[in-house]
What does this fold into?
Amino acid sequence: MSVERLKEVREAFLRDLDAAGADTDAIEKVRIQYAGRKSGLLQELTAVLKQLPNDQKREYGAALNDLKKAVAAALDEAKKRGASAGVGDKTSGVDITLPGRRRSRGAEHPVHLVRKRIESIFLRMGYTVEDGPEVEDDWHNFEALNLPPDHPARDDQDTFYLTGGSLLRTHTSPVQTRVMERQKPPIRIIVPGRVYRRDSDLRHSPMFHQIEGLVVDEGITFGHLKATLETFLRALFSDRVEVQFRPSYFPFTEPSAEVDITCIFCEGSGCGVCSNSGWIEILGSGMVDPRVFAKVGVDADRYTGFAFGLGLDRVAMLQYGIPDLRQMFAGDQRLTRQFE
Ligand code: DAH
It folds into this structure.
């Protein structure tokens, strides 16, 4: 046993460690083989020291110490290599050098944005927001609104019927009848919500959104209806819009009017959006028909009222320039992300 042997061990160690590369398991094996406390090679080489003749002890001891230091330093170095290699290494499970996964932020749907704006306009005017069921009965959706079973206007609202006689409400108007049944005037409400009709094309979706309005009190006139809707439409679109009331028909109002605004794109001069008419039809309205009051138990000699209904989706399409109504409900996040 001699200093020669120490040289051989050093070379073998360096070779083995080199072969282990950055593999932490392999490095650990090399460490145990050479520097392991119980049966490492260095341990053996240390034991040899005692048996050496005195004249050789000094040289061997010094060389052995040298070797131990070199082994320790090389192992340290190798471990560092192994640790940093593990970082980019897929097999270690977590690769902290990869860019993090961003959590995408949600965005409010354009219809929701429009609904919130409309609600805030009416809340400022002292209205409250009411809610009603989407699965309705025939009475509230039709009959109490002066649409008896054989009424031709039922055909305009191609209805989804459910088993057991209920249906998906075709408009938000049934909430008018529900509120009047349970609440005495004065009533001043708006009702946003989903409605359903069997219809699907560029401008129709089987599910869409409306906002209903209802005011009932003593002395309510068409003048109140007109002023309210003009104020509302100017607050919603712009101070510059003109508002036009056209005589119309709804079974639940008498007289009835459809309301147009001057086109918000061409300001009335005529363009593709308004079919060159300069006007955009925006809502239906009228004075509550006394027959509706009779159905829900409101004293028509004492009270009068007005009501209106408008499509939220149509307003969102106009305000945000969305060409196809069905796009809004396709669940494509590229649409909503624009409203982040
Ligand atoms: N419910 C009607 C529809 O869906 C809209 C409407 C018109 C509501 C006139 C009203 C109203 O309250 O007075 O077409």
Notes: The pocket of 3,4-dihydroxyphenylalanine is lined by residues 171, 173, 212, 250, 253, 284-286, 307-309 (CB under 6 Å). The chain has a mean pLDDT of 91. The radius of gyration is 41 Å.
